[in-house]
Each structure stands twice: as structure tokens, then as C-alpha cells.
Amino acid sequence: MTAQPIKHYLQFADLAADEYAYLFQRAALIKRKFKAYEKHYTLEDRTLAMIFEKASTRTRVSFEAGMYQLGGGVVHLTTSDSQLGRSEPIEDTARVISRMVDLVMIRTFEQARLARFAEFSRVPVINGLTNEYHPCQIMADIFTFIEQRGSIQGKTVAWIGDGNNMANTWAQAAALLGFTLRVATPRGYEMDSQLAALNANARSAHRWQNVADPMQACKDADLVTTDVWTSMGYEAESEARRKAFANWCVTPAMMAAAKPDALFMHCLPAHRGEEVAAEVIDGPQSVVWDEAENRMHVQKALMEYLLLGRVA
Ligand code: CP
Ligand code: NVA
Question: Which of 2-11, 82-91, 298-307 has the least mean pLDDT?
Fold first, then answer.
């Protein structure tokens, strides 16, 4: 089993800038070896449990394929096929599962539910998305930016759309890694500044600005990024959101306002014609497929790090 103390990855702020620097260079090595069909069995005989209380394509495949490629195995659970769906307390689930596996990844609703699982777990827990945060995705996005354009420090990222889990995580990353986040959200869908901070007491250290006009947010940006108008768990609000977000579609005109070499990112799944125009997501500035692939490479580096620490 894992060495103490346990290191969890529940939000972006759980790791420091130097740990991200290590993880990005480690992910680059892991990616190179994957492309060259070189074995990289650093987690042989280790087991990852993945718990999904919401749907997933990328998170499931990237963690599952990634763990096999590290020499380990996976157990996949959902709410409906486990006792979680029959009200077994999350604390008891954590106690039981963490006696049998080395690592747990959870996708769930409230961050507090994830935190409760982590509190009762004997092994590291990774956030595979909550209502509040999606740290593995932002790690992959920043790794993708670095691959394409070099360091993200001092750059400007435009967030167009909902002040959701992705936006909160971008804001934490901006403060930690030293770039500016411009956030354009419709009224009533702003980011929660407490969630966007590195911790509840660090609100003044933030590196994000609210900008009313999405076109203005894109001006001279190095990266333009967006997400669905309605996140998982908020489906009852879909109709109201469709109206409120009508002007928050990333268009070719918005991309033209950004720097000429600006990238476009979207964590996917995407709705062409809603939050992004097809010409943008399918256009030359879009790196969405690299982003999706890079989930696997950064998460392999993360799993290794949580279990083994820095590998020479
Ligand atoms: N981006 C992302 O997390 O995708 P899935 O919902 O398919 O896992
Ligand atoms: N904000 C979206 C991201 C999906 C990967 C959601 O939470 O549904």
C-alpha cells in the first residue's frame, strides 16, 4: 500500500507551482514513450478504483487506459451499479474501497462529498470532476498550451461562458502559475470568487478579472476557451441558460480579436452552434483533440506522483 502521508488531488491548488513544473516535464517524457511504444510500468500491480456518479467518456478512457499503460489495473464503479446508488454512506464506501486499491478517482457532485471520501480514504484520491472543480482537465489544458506555445506565465487566457467548475479551476491555476484570466460570463452566472481563490483566505491573490463583453475578454488573448452552457447536474436550468448565454458563443470574430496565434480550447463534449461555432472548434486554432489526448499523459504523471513521489 501507499507510503504516508497521503497526498490527495482534490483541487488545482493542492499542488504547488514546482510540482506542476515536475509533472509537466514528466508527462512529456511519458507521452514520448507512449508514442514510441516503449513500456513504462512504474505502477505494476497497483490498482485504481474509478467511481463515476456522473457520465464520462474522456475521464474514464484516459484514466483506465493510462493505468493499464503504467502496468496497473482498474476497477470501474458507477452510482447505479454499486451500493452508492442504494444510499451506502460515502464514508463507508471510502473505508472499504481504500483497503483494496492503491488509488481512487471520483467524479461526483458536491466538492464536499469528494472531500468526505478523501477524509476516510487510506489512499490518495483524485478529483475526476465535481460541481466546483475539474483540476485534471486544467492540468491537461496547460500542458497542451506549453507544448504548443511554451510557458503560460504572463499570458492571457479568455474564459467565455459559464462561471462553472472549469472557470473556477482556471482561476486557481492563474494565481498559482502566474497568468491572467479574463472571465466573461452572463449576468447571474458569474464565478464564485471564494471557489476561484487558492484558499478561502487568499482572495486578494487572484489573477482573474471580470469583463462584461466577451469580445473585449478575447482582445489580444493568447488562449480563448469555453465550455457547455449547462453542466452535468444543472439540466433543469437548460432552457433559462440557453437564453442567458445566447451571446456567449465563441465565434470567428472573437478569435480574430485575440492574438493571431491564439489557441482555442474546449474540454469537450462540445455543442457546435451553442457555446462555440463549428468554424472555431473545427478550425486551425483549435487544439481540442490534443487537450483530450493529453488528459491521459498528465494523469499518468499525476498517478505516479501521488503514489511514488518524484521519480528520478
Ligand atoms: N472533459 C471531460 O472531462 O470529458 P468527459 O466528461 O467525457 O470525461
Ligand atoms: N462543465 C462541464 C464539464 C464536462 C467535462 C460539466 O461539469 O458538465
Answer: 2-11
Residue 207 pLDDT grade (very low, low, confident, very high; cuts 50, 70, 90): confident
Regarding whether 300 and 278 lie in a shared domain, the answer is no
Range of the domain at 128: 12-133+292-308
Angstrom CA distances, 305 to 60, 124, 252, 312, stand at 19, 10, 40, 11
pTM > 0.90 = yes
The reply to whether 227 belongs to the active site is yes
Q: Please indicate whether residue 266, judged by its CB atom, sits closer than 6 Å to ligand 1.
A: no
The reply to whether 107 belongs to the active site is yes
Q: pLDDT digits over 228-263, tens only?
A: 999 999 999 999 999 999 999 999 999 999 999 999
- Is residue 159 within 8 A of residue 186, CB to CB? The reply is no
- Report yes or no on 91 lying in a domain: yes
Lowest mean pLDDT among 41-55, 121-135, 197-211: 197-211
Take residue 227 and report the three cell numbers written for it. 465550455
207 and 283 co-located in one domain? yes
Residue 3 lies in a domain: no
**In angstroms, rounded to a whole number, what is the distance separating the alpha carbons of residues 141 and 251?**
20
- The bound ligand whose nearest atom lies closest to the alpha carbon of 170 is 2
Quickly tell me which residue has 486557481 as its cell.
Answer: 172
Say yes or no: CB of residue 13 within 6 Å of ligand 2. no
Same-domain status, 75 and 154: no
Which one from 141, 162, 222, 227 is the annotated catalytic residue?
A: 227
Shared domain for 170 and 230, answered yes or no, is yes
CATH of the domain at 186: 3.40.50.1370
Task: Indicate whether 270 belongs to any domain.
Answer: yes
